[in-house]
């Protein structure tokens, strides 16, 4: 790991040098692409130690389990967090990314370039001096080899304009260095997949709380990716669909997608999501049993009934008995009685 104390700094000239020295008036201002993970937390802390004014930007995609931890990490660091939402352009990447997928449905090169383009346009709007990421050389084979880092810069139209403080000494000089906002001596030389250098740096910088590497992007999850791939062959997948895919048991009935809740919390969330997206839902909670959603407004009534039979299979209705449920919309609830599918019938319909 490189020096983290910033001693022996070279003299830089002009206004930029004044900024780099860290006086409040002329403080250099950085915008950090922030995931809330350890690398991005360390990057923010490192810059703060150097007297740089730091703000963070997170590009929210529908493929993260939750964002509360990103906000909490930014709050603990005392940085302003900007949140940008991925749009249709991002979701379009899933259909055929220029640089392919990783081990799952993760189009990391295209995804990073997309996020950097978004972050850069915010940086310009805010008038911050340079753009930063917490990337570590060699940490991820898909997107953080030397070639891939350079490729991502080119794809984002940001060649030589991304500062990566954790590995910066091992990478070509950036525009922020030549303009005097960043000094090479500030930058570290962390590389590789091992996390020990980061843990050591965390200790040194007093960073005690950070999330474990697991629990990140669902596009790297094999099971989520398998289902997403299958769905993409049948329909468009947007924010709404990505949310439904995070919940419950997943089925296909005649090419129509059905999600069945596994417990009370999921049942509540499914009903809420259906309502929020103008969809109907099937409710067996009185039996008791699950909530099910047919994620398609145009499904024929026979499919709605089959979806109810499927959901009833997971209810407490006795074998051979009809299950009493309700067909619900935001406006009304209609009683419904169906024969539950057998476990074998239900299993054949799994997505
Ligand atoms: S892991 Fe997910 S969020 Fe991260 S770069 Fe890859 S696709 Fe994008």
Describe the structure.
It is a single chain. Strands 6-7-9-8-10-11 form a six-stranded antiparallel beta sheet, sandwiched between helices. α5 packs across α6 (146-155). It has helices at residues 14-21, 38-49, 68-77, 88-93, 108-126, 146-155, 175-178, 196-205, 222-232, 239-245, 264-276, 301-313, 343-347, and strands at residues 29-33, 53-60, 80-85, 130-132, 162-163, 249-253, 256-260, 281-283, 291-294, 323-328, 333-338. The protein is of the alpha/beta class and 351 residues long. Residues 106-108, 111-112, 143, 217, 219-220 line the site of iron/sulfur cluster (SF4).
Short description:
By secondary structure, this protein is of the alpha/beta class. The protein has 13 helices and 11 strands. The longest helix is centred in the middle third of the chain and has 19 residues, at 108-126.
